[in-house]
Fold:
Amino acid sequence: MTIEKFNYDNRIVRNFAVATIVWGIVGMLVGLIAALQIPFPNLNAGPLLTFGRVRPVHTNAIIFAFVGNGIFMGLYYSLQRLCKARMFSDKLSKIHFWGWQSIIVLAAITLLTGHTTGKEYAELEWPIDILIAVIWVLFGINMFGTIIKRRERHLYVAIWFYIATVVTVAVLHIVNSIEIPVSILKSYPVYAGVQDALVQWWYGHNAVAFFLTTPYLGLMYYFVPKAANRPVYSYRLSIIHFWALIFLYIWAGPHHLLYTSLPEWAQSLGIVFSIMLIAPSWGGMINGLLTLRGAWDRVREDVVLKFMVVAITAYGMATFEGPMLSLKSVNAISHFTDWTIAHVHVGGLGWNGMLTFGVLYWLIPRIYKTELYSKKLASFHFWIATLGILFYAIPMYWAGFTQSLMWKEFTTEGVLRYPNFLETVTQIIPMYKLRALGGFLYLSGTITMAYNLVKTMREGTLQANEPAEAPKLEALTMEPSGHWHRWIERRPIQMLLLSLVVILIGGMVEMIPTFLIKSNIPTIASVKPYTPLELQGRDIYIREGCYTCHSQMIRPFRSETERYGEYSKAGEFIYDHPFQWGSKRTGPDLQREGGKYPNVWHYNHLIDPTTMSPGSIMPAYSFMETDDLDTTSTGPKIRAMITLGVPYPKDYDKIANRDLQKQADIIALDLKKNGVGISSRKEIIALISYLQRLGIDIKATPISDTKVKL
Amino acid sequence: MSESKITTKTICYHCGEFCEEETILLEDKFFCCSGCQLVYEILKENNLCTYYSFEDSPGKTTKNKAIGFQYAYLDTPSIAERLILFKDKNSVHIRFHIPKMHCSSCIWLLEHLSRLDKGVLENQVNFIQKELFIAYDPKITSLRKIVELLDRIGYEPELNLEQIQQKNKKKQSRVRIYKIGLAGFAFGNIMLMSFPEYFSGGVYTGEDFRKIFGYLNLLLAIPVFFYSANEFIINAWKGIQQKIINIDVPIAIGIIAMFSRSTYEIISGTGAGFFDSMTGLVFFMLIGRNFQDKTYNWLAFDRDYKSYFPISVTRILKNNLEEPITISDLKVNDRIRIHHQEIIPTDSILLEEFASIDYSFVTGESTPVSCLKGDRIYAGGKLIGSTAIVIVQREVSQSYLTQLWNRGCEKEISTSYFQKISTAISKWFVLITLTIATTSAIYWYSLDINKSINAFTSVLVIACACALALSAPFTFGNMLRILGKNGIYLKNAFVLERLADVQTIVFDKTGTLTQLNTANISYHGDEISKKELEAIKSLAACSSHPLSKLLVKHLNSLDQKLCISNLVEYFGKGIQGTIDSHQYILGSSNLIQDSNHRDLNKKKLTSIFVKIDNRVLGSFQFTNHYRDGLKITINRLQNNNYNTAIISGDDEGEKIVLENIFNKTADIKFNQSPQNKLDYIKQLQKQNKKVLMVGDGLNDAGALMQSNIGLSISQDINNFSPACDGIVLDEQFNNLPALLNFAKSGIRIVIISFLISIAYNIVGLYFAVQGNLSPIIAAILMPISTSSLVLYTVLASSLKAKKLGLTK
Amino acid sequence: MSVILILIICSLLVSIGFLAAFFWSVNNGQYDDDISPAVRILNDDEMEDIDLTNKNK
Structure:
């Protein structure tokens, strides 16, 4: 047996750590801006910095830049040590690092310039999607390579969580981003309406599950024992925790669509699995907390442990709240309100944020072979961050609750007490201000950390290659167990699994096309495809991220049908590539907007919302009356739609712009009649045409005889 | 931690035991003995003190450890060969069994050996097996060095004949785990694809979906049925062949019914089937069995003499050279040298003038036997005093000791699960369900053929004996765990069941009723001055005889040592020396009377006579020290109408004492040879009594095996204990009544849980007989009943344990 | 709702993959000892030798 000497690669860890800090600050700053734009609409500056574009930048920056780099930092550190091996390939590590950073930069640019798919947490356009897939796969290769050449026979539970992350995220990302390119920066998802919604939230939820949770659980199972210098409370429990989570998580998705037009049973499916999730999640939390049993006095002294305790607690709260929110009765209140925002931020600021900070404070001094620059600053960070979370969450819970009640309140005469949506918004503006304060506190904490850690790095010197030694793996695999030929002996099972896989793949290949076509056959006679102008308008709607504040999904409650009109039917969305149901109502629902107001109202409202509804916090879109609509894209768009099965007449793409112009002129004429002189070529015309189209198809037909078959 | 108890006494920083004989203070830390202190110092200087940071005082006491144990033989290649797994010029691999490893600290320390011995290349612990894998560089260190290191830090590896015999024992089978994994996976996914059916009342997405889901379910259920569930079906079949309706029969019927009906429904497109219930059931039942089959695989309940013997002895060759040799290679007429405290490996003839041998292990007789040249000495005895040379008379496998072991054991080994209750119940269960099924089938037959088939299968489906399958395993499994946590280790769950209907309890005396290496010592004779006492203590301290040791312990109040001149020890008889010009002799009556006529039948020596300058002053008399609270325990047993009996190897000396503890009703026998003991048990069983034998030594081995339940009392579970059904830690002896009570209530809990499940079954049957049992009802009923049962059994058993004070 | 089939099949494929992984790990003896690995991870880098025990009092 030979003892091998090798080095751990700390430079890559350092790089990801720095990226984490930088993007963390950026992401939170953007978040703060977005938070301020709500109570102070004037902060919406021109096309680039309107809330509708800023918010996706915030979510993407936090999830994929801050948390993403955080994951890689912790993973690259722990994986090497758990495997007693350097990363498989330094080149791949480098590519992974720079690839990921460039993705982030591209994302920021494209999102601000309005190139978005309009699907939450998957806003990035197809070229970037492909780039992500490639980089992710390379990362996967690097990771599995390391695992294969490891020198420790046992795969510690953390590694299993990492594996789950890599595999699942890849699948989710690919399935959810199957889209047809129209141009270099424009594409349509192949799924439409309800189908698109289901895929999107299957992805959306699992993005939360496998990007924000499983990898961080892995980090927890490595760094908490390390920081506390005692083994995890029950390793057996952690193993069960993993396997249980793996087989449950993937199915909780649909609970994001309760009361929507998603079929009843699919919703219930989501509920049941979400509820079942409490067990493994809390198993994990308890395991994490009990690891510190007997070390509580250390927690008092050690800031790292403090961060971790808060993180784990936040995880517990979030994973308890989640299933609760997926209960229909609760969801009826919480959905579309700031309650959801509060929920995700308890998870984001609490679980991901605090754990990341804990890891950073523990890890940087170690790889720099020095002490932390200032414990005082660190504990200041801890307290201000904790305070920030409170200042963020409590007002948001409050706001969500208040607004939801106001939406649902009826007078004794049986009419809505607050028929004007705006009232319910202005009511909670103070809460929005408090929330911004909370965000500010949290951000300032992060900046303190950045300062503290930079100082620490200055004082120490990076030990880029940390020497280590371990015997080759064979030595231990000499033990009777774990011989590959035993594995072959279990052929029956293997064959079984193999055949299952084959059958399933076969099934997919055979079914998918047929289904996709079949399910695009119109099922409500009166629902027609969008006219070219409306289609263009819709893409502007998507570009400006209107879905971040306006839902297009009227739930079957009296309070909503009273306010908005007939509730939404699955059949209405069959031409919606992508669906635009939205998940938050900062503004009213637009599902039945068509025909509610004259064109000129929309015109004025878009140029300056406050003129039509005083006190409105919606950004002004005056630039739309100056910018010309790009009609060159019409043809390709129509063609793409046709390939997706939208029943436009044959070769319609050739003549589409003619019809577009006709419709535009009509609207322009109407506006002129009402004293607004504007060229029919402007973007605003297209947008108005889309808004006027929304939900009118179904108004003609009574609900009863609209048989929805899916 | 047990802070409350340690108000007065100080506890050892290393081993956490009370500092009784001495207390060493080292840098604000207390140690109970030099051994513990030594270990601490070793760790300290190699800065391995993190050892103490995972657990409080993680060490094991090194106090009463066999002294002067030799590892020299490990240097002999021929012997080392037998132990090591693999070897090449720059590395050797070996796996030790280390019984003393017990906590995170142990793991941590044992995996840092390389800091204590640079030669250790790699070492890894398997905590479950209590094994330590070591790879070392033979150029730097040696097997012996490593073993001695381990021994020094208090983790002496178990090195005995057994180790060589089965060097690579195979790992426990993992089949059960695969089955559970597969069942769990299928269960989850089948649930997923069955819910749509339930939630939408079957009218969700048109036929195509239902079909696809159905077939996917079938696909997932097939492996569960044929692989995961096969053990139930196979056991059932075996049972039927032996004309026994064991617990698996109703289960198998249920599973088969579910599977076939569901398959039919799906293929014929008439329904969604019960696959979710089926896979769920299999999943839970497998977990149940796994839960119950948990055994202490690091604890050997059926060790045989091999594990009692050292690996090697020193053989003396013709040319008077000495070589270590493995015991199994001993031939008749080999001359071997036995050292102090070494075990005599096989029957042989003594060549020394004199030797004293401690047979306590074989005969239960605590005081050593004196032998003279030419005497036959028996395997299993322990030599005390100076080394002796003996001639081997029989090969190890033929020795008296070995025969003790192989003595006839006619105990039937239980094969099927819980034959007693379960088979009784499952017989009825099957009968009833089948009748209900057929009657409902017949009833419907006239009206609607499909419905009658439907009803028939539904009854079988719903009445699946999940309660039978789950309650017993979870109850007894949980009880095993509780007991195990508290120093009562039972071989398996059946032991509990058998314990429940014990009527007669038979005790061995020495080491069972009495506490080992403790005694009540009283002095009879003329006045002795303190000065003289000190002299006596000092003298006794020079002897290695157990009685002298006891005497020293007895006199430990007075300290300083006096210097002794012309010291003579008559091994096994006594010791003599001159202390400030007085000649002291301590020893047996015959030594004192100087009657050197050898007298082996009068071998007993329970008193030490004191003779100063040819004047016999008197004698210290040793009487057995019975366990504290023994009388109460025994009375409690007797009040619960257990017949009690004592079978002792000793003579009637203790008769009166025992009688007042056990009162007249108990039947007390003395001078019992191992064979007698065994026969006694047999004869009790003839009067078809269920007998519980409580013993310790090898002398009880036969009896322990023969009895319906054999419990062996042991001071340390890792010490040797003869084959038995359970090992009870010394301090747990007084919990015997509670244990029996616990076993009884275990049965009660199981029966109650059966009743509960019958209630569920009635609900299910109500739908079933009408032939309209929908999958959803099954799917709701199944988890509710199973979970509530598991909950009940586990809670009930835990509560009971608390009430009986079995939990610490 | 045809798309749900695709999703189900994807999920199934993934989880079958993990089932295989589960079999591998059990077979490989990964879980034979489910106690010491937790301690082992604390070993790697030279641990500062803090003596926590006296504070436990």
